[in-house]
Amino acid sequence: EEIDVTEMVALRDELNRQYGAARGELSPLAFVVRAVVGAVADFPQVNARFDDEAGVLTLHDAVHLGVATQTDGGLMVPVLRQAQTLDLWDCADAIARLASRARSGKATRDELSGSTLTVTSLGKLGGIVSTPVINNPEVAIVGINRIVARPMVLGGAVQVRQMMNLSSSFDHRVVDGAVAAAYIQRVRQLLETPATLFID
Known about the structure:
single chain; alpha+beta; two-stranded antiparallel sheet; 4 helices; 10 strands
């Protein structure tokens, strides 16, 4: 899905200008995490684990969000526990702290296990589309592609907008295509109107 993140980028820049020194810098990933987690409230099917051998599906109330992180030892997925309780700055701080622990080899087994939904991003190295692989036994993953400035038609006029694609994968034994599409549209809505990320 193509997402216009112009307002999100502007809000991030302004929040960093006003509060960065006191509260820490916000990354685009923190906004995406808030949107991905926030949308789960309307689509709880995506926050689940499916045991293939036992044939058991477990839906979770809490979102333990895995954040795929590249390290010298390979890909690791540190987990933001109770991600639905974290605000933007909490998300940014937790992401930075866990990624640092994973890259330094200090992450514990508990910090690297138990995720119920995963996001993955290559940041500035990433392309504009990707095919994320589901972190089994989860049933959904959302891939974040890099933000690029592109001409878009708005109100009949061409404007340069900050655009970002989300690439997602779902286990269709659990998440129907229509539910998956509606979930991503909800994520899109939250990112394109970023002030709503502050509403619980």
